[in-house]
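Dear colleague,

As promised, here are the two records you asked about, laid out in our usual form so they can be pasted straight into your sheet.

NAME FIELD: protein one
SEQUENCE, THEN STRUCTURE:
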Amino acid sequence: MTQFSGGEGGREGGGGGELVSSLSDGSICIKANAQSCGECIQVSEICGWCTDETFLSEGESKSARCDDVSYLKKKNCNNIENPRGRTDVIQNKSVTIRNKDGNIKLKPEEITQIQPQKLKVTLRSGEPQTLDLKFKRAEDYPIDLYYLMDLSFSMKDDLENVKNLGTHLMREMREITSDFRIGFGSFVEKTVMPYISTTPARLINPCSNNENCTSPFSYKNVLKLTSNGEKFNDLVSKQQISGNLDSPEGGFDAIMQVAVCEVSQIGWRNVTRLLVFSTDAGFHFAGDGKLGGIVLPNDGKCHLENDVYSMSHYYDYPSIAHLVQKLSDHNIQTIFAVTEEFQPVYQELKNLIPKSAVGTLSSNSSNVIKLIIDAYNSLSSEVILENSKLPEGVSISYKAFCKNGVQGTEDNGRKCTNISIGDEVSFKISIESQKCPSGGKPEVITVKPLGFNEEVSIELNFICDCECAKKGEPNSPKCHGGNGIFECGACKCNEGRIGRECECSKDEVRSDDLDANCRKPNSTDICSNNGECLCGTCECKKRENPAEVYSGKYCECDNFNCDRSGNLLCGGHGRCECRKCICDANYTGNACECSLDESTCLAKNGQLCNGRGKCECGICKCEDPKFQGPTCEVCPTCPGVCTEHKDCVQCRAFGDGEKKEMCQKECSYFNLIKVKERKDLPQPTDQSFPLTHCKEKDANDCWFYYTYAITKNSTKEVFVVEKLDCPSGPDIIPIVAGVVAGIVLIGLALLLIWKLLMIIHDRREFAKFEKEKMNAKWDTGENPIYKSAVTTVVNPKYEGK
């Protein structure tokens, strides 16, 4: 048997002795005012009950035993009753792995597709229990298919194609499963007016135009489920068309009978059950029977006599909800094979019936086999979980883990799609109870995949009382002479008795004599105005914040009115008891504000407050007004360390500087050590005390380097580089050569630029001349002052001879 246990809830308290000032989950337990352990654990999963007899302080009520578990521990409760829920797996048979072509043929009841099969869940109010469920589609799973056909006159041509359906469908379904059975039924309409004509002739043959039709009927089971396809063909071929008057048919009556006449008449097995509903018309449903004078609601029972529905004239059509319930109860998946005209109607019906499908039937049903195969593949590729009715106060939620990493929550947490044969999916189911049901008796619920005969049985047990209550002592002398049951460290009073020890009767709760016991000496306030006097004993008020408590014989004490520091109760370094701070170690003061730890006052040189102040309550009080800061090391008006000691170092190391004349008198307060190079100076990482590196300049602009430090024994040490770092004079020749060379280069550069500009200018002028020359046009006429040197004279006697 596998067991899963629930975890514990808790409330974290404030650190450093500070009480939690904000409202927390623990207030749920306090506000419930639980008077017994059983009442306490029903409030919330985080609530526990302290069973220590001496747990309550003076003035605390019995309900103070009920609080957040972690808070009870902080109040030093040693025995806490805090029962937890659990999940036990009772039956956990592995899912079946088989092959259709294998030699071993299993019976339907030997095939397992869902795991586990039986669990026992123990629930505590408010604490959810989670269980894992696995589903795997088994290969070669048996199938029962019942073909329910409308045999009204409009389906005449369809009947011809269905007559050979048995062998053809059997052959196709053998590709899916080796164990397939098929049955056949037909329906027309209720045999009363106005659905059919009740004239004698029409009752014999309801068809006109000399058509040979059979008498009208509501539903007829022609062939119970069989593996003999030839028998199906033979019986279906003998069927005749009938007729009715109105367009909607009585198919719902037939579906109800097919569903509820389960084994003996229809022959359903506990396997995949498919119902193919074939029609070319709409349907009647609950209430339509009134047209024929039928008012009794459908009773959802089997009424087949000689395979014919005998009570169609007595009971109304079933409602859609009634059909959904019966189809689900009997794990029947419905395939609506309807003509295109009625597709919208049956699509809406499909949305109301889980695990159903709609296919478009051709006008003569020639495509019915393909329609059935496609619809079956669609239905079987989807698994949808449903649960039976839950007990009052119990809720259930699902989370699906489907193929390819797809997850679903809320409504989609119940289903997985696109599941192929052999695929495995899982679901995480969370069950939670909000209260203990009346009686507290175990309840059994089931979770099953729609359309499958397998289910998971879950026995729910409820934790309604604590284990310690079973050991209670009735009429205990601890309860004021037997006025209650002493259980779980407290008295559970008998009817009519109250008080922590059941010492009072409800009729005598208040009286002047009893009230006198609730007043402090020389005071007129009852219970210090912080409580109520019950049976002569103060029962202190409860605060909104459960961490804040009144206590004391007269409720004169509390744990929240102590002095504060830094807006923290007792400075965050103590606890408040009866309005006085009890400080933690190393703290003192009215509000525990004063720390006795002097580590916060240590300066970098290891001295308390740098030797210039006193450490009080962990804070330096600087005595020298020039110094300030947390350790009196900051001096805004003081020169720096390097500037302060510059003159003394200069005079002692180099015999120079402003203090040259008074060097021996004023500069002997430190030890001087000379080093050859700067790299030989001590580094901060080499010392265990503060060290300052200095770089200073003398009157000749020479640099000198030194370090200043105060050792642990307060000795002042100065390390100085013995050689000054003086800058060398400038080299004149390179400077002059550089200047001359620069002037020459600048001149050459200017000449080159001028020459380049002149070339560009000349080329532009020449190009302009060439362009004007090309564009010039000369006058080709004769010069008016030009005279030719040749004179031509014509002989007048010459006639061209």
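NAME FIELD: protein two
SEQUENCE, THEN STRUCTURE:
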Amino acid sequence: METSSNHHYRWDGDIESSVDGSSLGMSLDRNGSDLSELREPLVRKRTMNTTSQIAIIGANVCPIESLDYEIVENDIFKQDWRSRQKNQIYQYVVLKWFLALLIGLLTGLVGFFNNMAVENIAGFKLLLTSELMLKHRYVLAFFTYVGCNMVLAAAAAAICAYIAPAAAGSGIPEVKAYLNGVDAYSILAPSTLLVKIFGSILGVSAGFVLGKEGPMVHTGACIANLLGQGGSRKYHLTWRGLRYFKNDRDRRDLITCGSAAGVAAAFRAPVGGVLFALEEAASWWRSALLWRTFFTTAVVAVVLRGLIEFCRSGKCGLFGQGGLIMFDVSESVATYSLPDLIAILVLGVIGGVFGSLFNFLVDKVLRTYSIINERGAPFKILLTIIISLLTSCCSFGLPWLAHCTKCPADAVEQCPTVGRSGNYKNFQCPPGYYNGLASLFFNTNDDAIRNLFKAGTQNEFHMSSLFIFFTAIYCLGIITYGIAVPSGLFIPVILAGATYGRIVGTILGSITDLDPGLFALLGAASFLGGTMRMTVSVCVILLELTNDLLMLPLVMLVLLISKTIADSFNKGVYDQIVVMKGLPYMEAHAEPYMRNLVAGDVVSGPLISFSGVERVGNIVHALRLTGHNGFPVVDEPPLSDSPELVGLVLRSHLLVLLNGKKFTKDRVRLPPQKVLAGFSPSDFGKSGLGKGLKLEDLEITDEEMEMYVDMHSIVNTSPYTVVETMSLAKAQVLFRALGLRHLCVVPKTPGRPPIVGILTRHDFMPEHIIGLLPDLKASKKAVSMTM
């Protein structure tokens, strides 16, 4: 084993912390231009060892590592491709499409099951409470309502805290980080999938101000991962025929399809799902993936349509025609003039301001909750129960502040609504009257959005009721996200945005002809743009939801305005959460200060390299002392005429080779056929995180430790390399664009060792650069350069 103090090696593919335990996962401020304003993540100076960084996944602290989308071009890879026949290649392509079909089918079924379960559980709870209210047994109705909610909330928090903490939250930040190249234990495990499904059902049914749309993205990704790796050996769910995708590239594509399918299942928006994956989730995209993603979401749409038609006959309990949020505001004539555009401008500004404030407050709340969640599962459950109690008290108590309104004579629906969802909830009002605030609070979130979006209801809700509902939903949405329950932000944001949209529409009713239901739609769009900073995908999702293509120009305008306003204050909510969780996400662009640095400035040592024919003991020693996942291989005389970089060998491949015990007593190079005899390409395939061969599994005797092993056949002979004088900005763009885990840095001048160091994801993180170059933090000139 060769170790040189002149070489630099920082971190080989695990997302590792610095040896001195400096703070982990820190990131730049909102525009990435000021290194003096680095923000602490939720994980504060926790170190497990010197080679693995940790981050918060769901509600749990886990070690994380990088994914590797590079093709390892070694002898076994070349031999495998040469031996493949045309029919095998054809089967591989067909299997990709078959898996896309399965992902769409299963995600559609899960989405339907989630909605049907929520509608029946929440519907039963609301019917039971309403019956007691009609009998004027208000105290018993209150305790029944609160008790049901607390039991459901405690159950959701318990299974999340004890079985799969990674299932907490929406899961979109974790999926986004995974598709960017960051893996974590249990992030896509079968246990996470099950808890995500049932925890989301229980959480939404408990009346929390949260949605099941975000968790559906995570659910779709978990389904795709389960299929891509051929099932789960732990749970005895394996399909040998599906174990062809034992590499990060194919799994990444499948999980991209899964995330798109999740959005399509949540909103019945297949095109919106594709655009969501393109705009928000995926970091790499190509035309072939676009086709498969579109096919997956189309399958979801067909499955949902068929199941909804089946339920129209009343065979699904209380599900009926509700559940899957589909709003139709096309009853209104979407004609607009200059005063209407002024109203749209106002909505966009309000959405940008409220959205950025929402993100700021969510940031503060999550940091506070992290202190509570650190104390263990019982405290997570207790926090959830407290938020449930507060939410239930608001939902039941605030409608008492509203005045009873006489039922309109021309009401299309039954008024007051008795025993089912609808616009006109009776609550405590006498016959012939309804409570407008109860119509919003005492419904499922989906039905409340329908009521707000409904056209031709200018006088249905009092202004005071809308103000109360907006304030409650805005505040409850902030304090609810972060509890140990699968929870999405789409629904709270749409609810709050639709409410203030109706408020603006009512206030500006004298200068505009737009229906308040359309203002509610535009308000929801503005708040989505202000919080999530998505434009194209949100625009299409809303249009698919509302079936109102004529509103396209107005939705586009309000999204652009709200996003522009909000971007001047902070990042989007998912980008903020990625930073807070300590996930080392790499942006598509390099930061301005990187243009003043070169690749050689940020590699750090010591570098550990191997010879092409290395002593077994040296390899075992290096693997035992480090957590590195890649090692450079350098041949020196007599194996070569002069020192030369052979390539890069992966830790997982070394373990497989050592386990095969192809050792020799002399340091000689063997033919590839002899080294690889007894191995198959699948032996070197990627296993699930934490499931591959480990060093502790090897049984190597003292005599074998003194023998040699030829590694040339498993070395990636064409790793990506950059010269040490390349600007760090260019190296970062190259690293991310190619989805690399290791980037070799070679010397510019001859006569030096053939490799200077290895760049990994960690080397591009601001905290690492500041640790190496502390003067850069104080340098205003370096960080104020324009792009």
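A couple of things worth noting about protein two: The longest strand covers residues 60-66. DSSP finds 28 helices and 17 strands in the chain.

Best,
R.
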